[in-house]
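Z., the sequence and structure:
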Amino acid sequence: MITPDFEDSPSPKTLTEIANLPDEQRQLMNWIIRQQKVTLAEIATHQDISHQEAQEQIQNLISQGFIQIVNDSDTTYYKPHFASPKKRNLSQNIWDKLES
């Protein structure tokens, strides 16, 4: 069963906030978004860095609110953590005019 770990996590980010990240973090986030969820070993392999360095990079993104931790059985995954788009409430007047 997949259970997100939301304890002490900052608020989710928007896709546009990725543009403000330093180049290395932005590239890593873009890769994680394409993969949808990754393990620490996959990050280390993709970045060609040690597991310790991968842990530091992912922890930095977690603390900024870009990544959330998902535990699936005995495996820990990291996946993008984005805010849902805000829904717009249309005025009832619009619906009344459309029905006329």
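Confidence is low (pLDDT under 50) at residues 1-8. Strands lie at 2-5, 67-72, 75-80.

Let me know what you think.
H.
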